[in-house]
Write a structure and sequence with these properties.
Number of strands of chain B: 10
Distance between the termini of chain A: 27 Å
Number of domains of chain A: 1
Shape of chain B: globular
Helix content of chain A: 25-40%
Helix content of chain B: 40-55%
Number of helices of chain A: 6
Radius of gyration of chain B: 18 Å
Order of helices and strands of chain A: HEEHEHEHEEEEEEEEEHH
Structural class of chain A: alpha+beta
CATH class of chain A: Alpha Beta
Number of strands of chain A: 13
CATH architecture of chain B: Alpha-Beta Barrel
Shape of chain A: globular
CATH topology of chain B: TIM Barrel
Largest interface: A-B, 15 and 16 residues
Oligomer: heterodimer
Strand content of chain B: 15-25%
CATH architecture of chain A: 3-Layer(aba) Sandwich
Number of helices of chain B: 9
Number of domains of chain B: 1
Largest sheet of chain A: 9 strands, mixed
Order of helices and strands of chain B: EHEHEHEHEHHEHEEEHEH
Radius of gyration of chain A: 15 Å
CATH superfamily of chain B: Divalent-metal-dependent TIM barrel enzymes
CATH class of chain B: Alpha Beta
Structural class of chain B: alpha/beta
Strand order of the largest sheet of chain A: 1-2-3-4-13-12-11-7-8
């Protein structure tokens, strides 16, 4: 039987496949698995800037555009065993056909109901409003991936649309970010750092 | 110093060959080629056709001052959309390749466009990171990347010290500044930019600017050389001070409404006066 250690080790090699590159941070219990495109790599760089003080094992999937079923199941197992996943959507910059099957995959594997990315022009605000783990405004990243919160708890909204949520999965859980946080971390956005750091501390 | 002007100045309907002849008659030493602007030099233009462009430039008795591009405004290395960012990387790579084929050692790019949606710090970091990679490619090709100061249009790198810090962060001997003395508007003085950047200046764009006019809609604040508010004696002295002896390339954004070829001759004469220092 596969152990939790085997699973985590596998994430960095065959199980996760060639599309993701691993940045192991075992001392902090956080791993960042970036896809091979500049959006994901930029966001990964941002997440690496966080303090990474988390007592949980956390896997961050930054700027996701094309997660395979195999990889999705592997990271879901990580959550079932008590770990946390941070799924950051990069779907706004994916091909339309990719978006359709990614929406299905995220529903089937993680139980999250996300919708097609949209660009919202809100003249009243440029900011995503986080209500958990801290109340903060963080700059939105152009297009957002909305999420229905019937099976998940909303943690942020933009212009009245739910954009970030968290959901328990097994002994762990998933945090879905429908507006990218990582680029704001690279850009030294103070509130983005506070949100990111406190999320990790809360897990 | 040598003088050039862009192929964008060729009057409408003029062929590449006839445009070059016009420049030669007007006394220019070279031509600035704009990738993506005129039909003869596009991303799809093959290596063979770029070679043919070079042959035509030589036949006209001219040189290529450098390779510019008009694509950066739509596809910038600072874009959030990775497809646009990658397209920008590709067209700059192509500029570098073309520069080698055209026997010149510099390219002009616009790095970073700050908008209400894409904030300053994001643009800054993305540009530094991408220019480090492009600097390596440029170094292998022995072509310098000149990052133009389009201050007001970019809303980016608005002071000479900030631009210097930016180049320090990029930290590549193959990435410098393509200084446009007309782009500084009311935020500073071109001669001070020349002093501060000195040996990092890859090329100098020349036009005049009407200060204290603001910039409303499509109304241009740019004008012909010697007609605006630039301090041309100070600019010329600063060039001497930093020993700039390279290309001066006229970039006439405000165009003659009639007799458009006349602007080519008038601009050449003005560049001649600037070079000679008879001001």
């Amino acid at each position: 039987m596969q152990t939790r250690r085997d699973l985590l080790f596998g994430l960095g090699s065959a199980a996760i496949g060639p599309a993701l590159s691993r940045t192991p941070r075992p001392e902090f219990g956080i791993e960042i698995l970036a896809e091979k495109h500049c959006l994901s790599e930029e966001s990964a760089k941002g997440f690496r800037l966080l303090d990474r003080r988390s007592s949980a094992r956390v896997i961050v999937l930054p700027g996701l555009r094309e997660l395979s079923y195999e990889n999705a199941l592997a990271v879901r197992s990580h959550a079932l065993y008590g770990g946390w996943l941070i799924l950051e959507s990069g779907l706004a910059f994916a091909a339309k056909e990719t978006v359709a099957w990614q929406i299905r995959l995220i529903r089937d594997v993680f139980g999250l109901r996300i919708r097609e990315p949209v660009t919202i022009r809100d003249n009243n605000s440029s900011y995503v409003r986080y209500t958990w783990p801290v109340r903060h405004f963080v700059r939105h990243f152009s297009a957002i991936t909305p999420i229905e919160c019937s099976s998940a708890e909303r943690i942020a909204e933009f212009a009245g649309v739910n954009v970030c949520a968290r959901r328990r999965v097994g002994n762990g859980g998933i945090i879905f970010l429908g507006s990218m946080l990582g680029p704001g971390l690279v850009a030294e956005e103070r509130e983005a750092h506070q949100v990111g750091n406190v999320i990790l501390q809360c897990l | 110093m040598k003088k050039a002007i862009g192929d964008t100045i060729f009057p409408a309907g003029t062929s590449f060959e006839d445009g070059l002849k016009l420049l030669k008659r007007a006394g220019y030493d070279g031509v600035e080629l704009w990738l993506g602007e005129r039909p003869w030099f596009q991303m799809k233009t093959s290596d063979i056709d770029v070679g043919r462009l070079f042959a035509k430039v030589q036949d006209a008795g001219l040189e290529v001052s450098h390779v510019a591009n008009s694509l950066d405004w739509d596809e910038n290395i600072s874009a959030r959309d990775p497809a646009k960012r990658e397209a920008a990387f590709r067209h700059i790579e192509r500029q570098i390749e073309a520069a080698q084929m055209l026997h010149t050692d510099a390219v002009l790019i616009v790095a970073g466009v700050v908008t209400g949606e894409t904030p300053y710090n994001e643009v800054y970091n993305r540009c530094v990171e991408t220019l480090r990679k492009l600097g390596e490619i440029a170094g292998r090709a022995r072509v310098k990347i000149g990052v133009e100061n389009c201050n007001s249009e970019q809303r980016f790198l608005l002071s000479p010290r900030e631009f210097r810090n930016f180049l320090n962060d990029v930290n590549s001997p193959w990435v410098g500044i393509h200084l446009d003395v007309g782009n500084i508007h009311d935020t500073g003085f071109a001669e001070q930019w020349i002093e501060i950047h000195g040996p990092r200046i890859t090329r100098i764009h020349v036009k005049d600017v009407m200060k204290h006019r603001g910039r409303c809609g499509q109304e241009s604040v740019y004008t012909n050389i010697f007609l605006g508010d630039n301090n041309w004696r100070a600019i010329r002295d600063a060039m001497t001070k930093v020993r700039y002896d390279g290309w001066l390339i006229a970039e006439m954004e405000a165009r003659y409404r009639y007799a458009s070829d006349q602007q080519i001759f008038d601009t050449s004469a003005a560049l001649g006066r600037l070079i000679s220092g008879q001001l």
